[in-house]
Amino acid sequence: MSSPHSKHSVTQSVTRSVSPEQFTSGAQLYLILFTCSLFLFAINLIKRLSLCSQADFLVDFIFGVLSASFIFSSLEKKMSHSDSLDLDRYANLDKSRRSASRNQTRQRTKDGEVLCDFCTTRKQKAEKSCLVCLASYCAEHLQSHYDYPTLMKHKLVKATGQMREKVCAQHDKLLEAFCRTDQTSVCVLCMMDEHKHHDIVPAGTERTEKQKQLGTTLHKSQQRIDQRIKKWQDLRQAVESVKHSAQTVLEENERIFTELINSIQRKYNEVKEMVLSHERTTVTQGDLLLDRLEEEITLLRKRHNNLEKLSRTDDHIHFLQSWQSLSGPSGYEDLNSINVVPNYSFDPAKRAIAALKLQVEEISKTEMMKISGAVKEVYITQEAKEGELKSRRESIVSIDARTVEEPRTREDFLKYSLQLTLDVNTVHRNLHLSEGNRTATMKSDPKHYPDHPDRFDHWQQVLCRENVYGSRCYWEVDWRGTEIDVAVTYKGIRRKGNSNDCSLGWNEKSWSLYCSESKFTFVHNNRSKDLSAPVSSRIGVYLDHGKGILAYYSVSDGMRLLHKIQTSFVEPLYPAFSVWGFGSSIKL
């Protein structure tokens, strides 16, 4: 290697042997520089002399165009061939490249198209951008990159207006690698300077690694969108159902209360305002959540689209720079805590209003009979009195017959249908609820329900949330497995322990139909009665609480009465069930 003194001597020799006039020819200067083994000193010399407009170009040309790919010993030979470089063309290229970064914003159309940096009159749309030249080319001006062997080695990418982002701000060199230590893109000089001992890999290598993470992120992004859409649909359905159910209740409220006497008009208005107020509150809450979900879905879709675009880019540096902002947490509020209530209906209110109507009608009929009898007590002859009393007795018998008339067909029973849901606060841990808490299945693995004083801790039993008081109701249950109980009970039945006071049917507070694979048995207050009837997988229960009637029906093939009792119920009754044997289940 030559000493600094010898380098200086060569530099002086070159300076003395080359006159300023000789630098007017770009080709001559080109040969002189590359003939000299110390061309770096020649470059500095050219910069100091500033002899011609091509000097600056040649400095960049040596580093950029030729780079390390030229073998210096073959330069003169290459210059003699027909494909020798047109230095005037490269001088123009250099000028355009130097102004490209300043004009990038102006070189784009309104729709984001990138324009050619070399078109002098009407700018044409650029097809490719060169990462070495840091310029964009239309089809015509791009041809030089296909004609000259040196330019063929340049890296061409899809036209982009973000060329400056691919250049090191400190060294003005192309960003070609990625520093994993600092998580940033670096140029070749950065690798020899502040990132010298860092973990540095080629941009393509890091892109491959990040591409794997992108696939996972895209999958999670799509899942998040699907979840939000599902929640939006469920929530929207709930809101519509609330509106529809509220309207149904209002119509029923209107129909029923207009049939009542004027003395209950005030109660009618109270019920109407109660429903409307709750509807407004519920719908307002639902609309707010819908707006939040819609906004989040829009933002998530936008981010997802950006991720998809990023996955298709062939620009490693753009990918890595964009990845930093897109790979992190979305920053959106987690709405997974939104749980749509499965039974968003005003049906319980509707049934309560209907029960009130029946009670008022029955009271009205009874009182009207008393009034009618009192009025007709005034007679002017004994014969008229005896005739009126006979007519009244016949009328009372007829009225009583109509009053106590019970449903006969399944359609008649379904008019009193009661929608039931199982109470999660009462269910035994081995009973797993599903389908909106309308199915209970006996399983060997206990479910971790929270502790609750109403929960059965020994018998595999569950109560319904709804109760029946003073009205008629009907419900059906499908069952499968080995053994179940279909029962009604007062709320005061014991929940803790294995005594009969806790078991459905075996105490004075509950009545039960025991169903097995071979028979039916009715149980109440520690007494049981086997029933002679074919086993059925669907049981219907009819309860007239006011009249003390409880009847069980087989519904598999028509309505077949299994057992019926008439007693006096003094408290509200709750439908209840027992499930015995793993795999056995009941479904409302």
From TrEMBL:
Listed InterPro entries: B30.2/SPRY, B30.2/SPRY_sf, Butyrophylin_SPRY, ConA-like_dom_sf, E3_ubiq-ligase_TRIM/RNF, PRY, SPRY_dom, TRIM8/14/16/25/29/45/65_CC
Origin: domain of life: Eukaryota
GO cellular component: cytoplasm
Boundaries of every B30.2/SPRY domain copy: 400-588
CDD domains (UniProt xref): Bbox2_TRIM16-like (cd19769), SPRY_PRY_SNTX (cd16040)
Pfam families: PRY, SPRY, TRIM_CC, zf-B_box
UniProt signal peptide: none
Gene Ontology terms, MF aspect: zinc ion binding
Domain annotation B box-type: ranges: 163-203
PROSITE patterns registered for this protein in UniProt: B302_SPRY, ZF_BBOX
Keywords per UniProt: Membrane, Metal-binding, Transmembrane, Transmembrane helix, Zinc, Zinc-finger
Transmembrane segments: 27-45, 57-75
Residue ranges the record marks as coiled coil: none
Annotated SMART domains: BBOX, PRY, SPRY
Record's protein name: Tripartite motif-containing protein 16-like
